Amino acid sequence: MKFSHISDTHLGLIQYGLEEREQDIYDSFNQAIDISIQDKVDFVIFAGDIFHTPNPSGTAILQMANALKKLKQNKIESFFVLGEHDISRIRSTPIPYVYHNLEFSKYVGRGEPVYYKDVMIVGFDKIRKNEMTGLEGKFSHVESLANKHAGHKILVLHQGITEVNKFAGEVNSTDLPKNFTYYAMGHLHDKFLKQYEHLKGPLVYSGSTDMISNQGDVEKGFFEVDISGTDAKSEWKKLDTRLQILEKMEFEKIDSQIQELNEKISKLEKKPIIKIKIKGDNLERDVIESKFTDLASKSLHFSWELSKEDDESSVLLNRPAQIDQELFKLAVNALKSEKLAHIAINELLPLLSTRQVDSATQVVIENFSNFLEEENDS
Hints:
3 domains
């Protein structure tokens, strides 16, 4: 028996306001669906952030519906939990519930198991830090259910694990129920797989199916997992995505570095997305602009900026996990509080970047109320 673990599809994202990028997101997602069908998986798990916003466009809703229909037509079941991008802070029914109600897919985000043949599947929607009360009891409950089940057990979560990324982590791996064959994780956009000694099966992030931010030349894909035997065996499936390039250049060497980059992208079928950071002093923007004219014309989206060697913003050219860490550090320095930095980076920023002003306002109100309660208690 085999299943696909797909996460963070962010359907409906229009990166840089470009229709081509919206279509890229759909194309990558549909590749994952088609590969799963071609490889004859038995079921698919969607580990949250199906959509980029809680109120997705009609096109995004139809893309998911059509994918689920194709899976059904090929006798492939699917199961899903909700990520923070799927859930509105304003009381409303999340769009993915529609697929459950129409029996296109099965929702497993409430901590109650469903069964596919002899496989137990249980999950939890995204749990925010201020909602962690009682989580230990919920995990204890599913642990007891897993202990009673003789077949494979899969836990689906859309959470950051502290040992994987301490700045984006909300729970520790040691907090998780122990007796699951496979831990299907969502939320972090890089792939990650590790077998912890205290967990029965591997803890796995499949990462996002496309570039949600410019991460540079990073593979995107999903995992197919074989559970025919006693253990879960994961196989990485790489998707064909548009190349996104992050490049550091020194002004003294800029001509040769531009030539090298031109050679790199000359044979690409799709125009890449390019961001360049230039190191140097007393540089004239007009001069730099003139040097990038040809390169910009060969890019779907092109941007550049100046930085000095000690410029803290240069950390944005590092790998995605480092981006999270350094952005958090900058927020801590500005706000003088790790708690406030977490709220700003992990809760407010994603909402405001997608213009969810009402939801962002609700975050501020909730956290202000919690602050008042803590002050009164002290």
